[in-house]
Amino acid sequence: MSSMAAMPNSHAPVDVPDLSTVWLRAFLEVARQGSFTVAARTLGWTQSAVSRQVSSLEGALSGGPLFDRLPRGVRLTEAGRILVPYAQAVVEALQGAGHELVALREVAGGRLRFGAFATADAALVPHALAAFRARHPKVAVTREEGFTPVLLERLTAGHLDLAVVSTTGGGIPPTGYELRHLLDESLYVAVPAGHPLAAVDRGPVRLGHLADADWISGGSRPEGTLLDAALRQGFRPRVAHVVGEWTAKQGYVAAGLGVTLVPALAAESVRPDVALLSVLDEGGPARAVYAATVRGRSPAPAVEAFVGALREAAERIPRASRTMA
Questions:
Q1: Which of 71, 259, 263, 324 would disulfide-bridge 185, Cβ 3.0–4.6 Å?
Q2: DSSP letter string, 183-219
């Protein structure tokens, strides 16, 4: 057999023993101080306790002594010198993990990934996010915007920690999610500033007064949209223009091309040449807004803190009915 074949395989896996972090802490402190006595004093242990931990570590490693015991103090052996950087890496990694976990618990670190539907971004989310960042500036925050079904898919897939979602037209909240109720939105109808109804100081209007108007909506059919409110009041609105963006809808209204419904969340961002008339909707709130998380998953402390900020922000939404869960 050749000498090459007789050589041991230097890449063979090594059976690494289970090592106590207490052993490693004692070893590093003795190495740092050069003395069992001083290490014990620093750690607040007895000298015999430190000696036992180091002896246990030496026995587990089976690599011989880690220290030469001298008349005065100790000195690292070659085995001890090799072990020092590995022991430091283990202890520092565990300390780092401990710091991050404390920061997570105290919402002084970690991350928050959330999504929201478009009108929530008009007022609710900005107010909540500003308050959250002021209180928890070290949390890394990312946000997405999208329709409720897409946000829920992202939430289920684990790409989001929380989603601000809504139900329209009295829809049943989706199953599989923990839904924290934020608010029930009232509705406004947006008309040109010179519209006859805008010139009269009156209370909430019935949408039936605008049954013959051209309507601007995000979809060609009223079902499943805010225009469900018109169906509840006994007429089918004539959708003359399908426009998705709220700012564009306002432009159409201001130009006299029709009227549109505006939820309370978007009321703060209405332009001055558009008038808002509160809607009398006896069929209940037009839309409920929730902070959603996936049922069965433990939300991070940052999620709970953000839900609190959302609830505070919901109190600032004009003419919204709030029933906190």
A1: 263
A2: EEE-EEEEEETT-GGGGS--SPBPGGGGTTSEEEESS
The residue whose two tokens read 């015991």 is: 69
CA Rg, the chain, in Å? 33
Structure tokens of 144? 């997405």
Total length of the chain:
325
What are the φ/ψ torsions at residue 272 (nearest 5 degrees)?
Answer: -70, -20
Beta-ladder partners of 142 = 113
The b/e string for 226-248 (b: 16+ C-beta within 10 A; e otherwise) is bbbbbbbbeeebebebebeebee
Q: Please count the other Cβ atoms lying within 10 Å of the Cβ belonging to residue 201.
A: 5
On whether the CB atoms of residues 207 and 233 are closer than 8 A, the answer is: yes
Ramachandran class of 224: left when φ > 0, alpha when ψ lies in -120 to 50, beta otherwise: left
The answer to whether 136 and 103 have CB atoms below 8 angstroms apart is: no
Backbone torsions φ then ψ of 86, nearest 5 degrees: -70, -40
Q: Which residues of the chain have pLDDT under 50?
A: 1-8, 169-170, 320-325
How many CA atoms lie within 13 Å of 176's alpha carbon, on the beta-carbon side? 7
Q: What is the amino acid identity at position 117? A: F
How much is the pTM? 0.64
Q: Give the tens place of pLDDT for each residue, 286-313.
A: 678 999 999 999 888 999 999 999 999 9
Tens of pLDDT, residues 90-139: 988 888 887 777 766 767 678 999 999 888 888 899 999 999 999 999 99
Task: Round to whole Å and give the CA distance between 94 and 21.
Answer: 9
